């Protein structure tokens, strides 16, 4: 622990790498967690697997 | 909020579109939630990623 | 399957009862799922366990 | 219920088949659950979707 | 990894202790995972937070 | 989106407040997400609901 699961649109590896680094750093600095204890999972989903306001992401015109 | 995560077998987009619409409508009518606050995630998994009664979906004969 | 997990603020039982009924009905009508196959989990969280826009729910003035 | 969701690296079907069988057996023997009530979901993620200690799995040298 | 999340009715500690031991053992024997890498989370929910077949657990007569 | 779910031991509100602020900031700066789109859920669990290496948290002597 802690285990962090992120539901998001697909992102390039370099952005996920940087985000995981910063989130881990936040746990270390704010909670005093050991770095190795922090795990981050990226659960990526595209516009055919997600809806907001009852409209699928792939159908939105103002995404 | 609310965030709705659905674990299911893969389904065609038009069925997910209709389901997301109806689930969102249910939140609006029953909870009084604003439509835009409802997000639905479809986490689709096939018969090689799911088991029931100790038997993988892909091995079932009476699915 | 399907398994539906809802992350939401705490709600009265009668609202959850009605919502579960309507969500289940949506699966039966849209997917043709058997009613008994649909399970709904309510994962309720209060304003001390949720943040939006970097602000905890309990600190919001315009919730 | 119970619903078991496993976040893991991808594994061959035969290993998942055996694991699901053993986990289900554990519920039946320890909790007295009916076999058919146990569902297991494998949420598989590769080294580009998971980080530990702030380092993506695909960047680790000592995985 | 692996991370195991179990959605279940509340159970006594001694049953969860035995179940966690057996699930961990299954990963070690079937996947060859190191014991320390296996984490199990029990997400317990009662009959007011779960529905099956559109009926809340607390309303069922044949639970 | 993104939706961030954190499985962790219980923590004081002020630590969660600071963590949510920093995680949200990371999404804004790394992904260019709008601040309001980021939601963080804290799913807190104690030593009777979590096991590592087959041992419940409440039974560990070297936690």
Automatic annotation (TrEMBL), chains A, B, C, D, E, F:
Keywords from the named record: Isomerase
GO MF entry, a single one: isomerase activity
Claim: Isomerase is one of the keywords in the record: yes
Domain 4-oxalocrotonate tautomerase-like: 2-56
Pfam families: Tautomerase (PF01361)
Family, similarity comment: Belongs to the 4-oxalocrotonate tautomerase family.
UniProt protein name: 4-oxalocrotonate tautomerase-like domain-containing protein
Organism this protein belongs to: Litchfieldella anticariensis (strain DSM 16096 / CECT 5854 / CIP 108499 / LMG 22089 / FP35) (Halomonas anticariensis)
Lineage: Bacteria, Pseudomonadati, Pseudomonadota, Gammaproteobacteria, Oceanospirillales
């Amino acid at each position: 622990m802690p285990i962090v699961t992120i539901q998001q649109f697909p992102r390039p590896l370099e952005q996920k790498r940087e985000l995981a680094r910063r989130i881990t750093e936040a746990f270390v600095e704010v909670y005093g967690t050991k770095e190795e204890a922090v795990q981050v999972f990226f659960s990526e989903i595209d516009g055919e697997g997600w809806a907001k306001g009852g409209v699928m992401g792939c159908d939105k015109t103002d995404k």
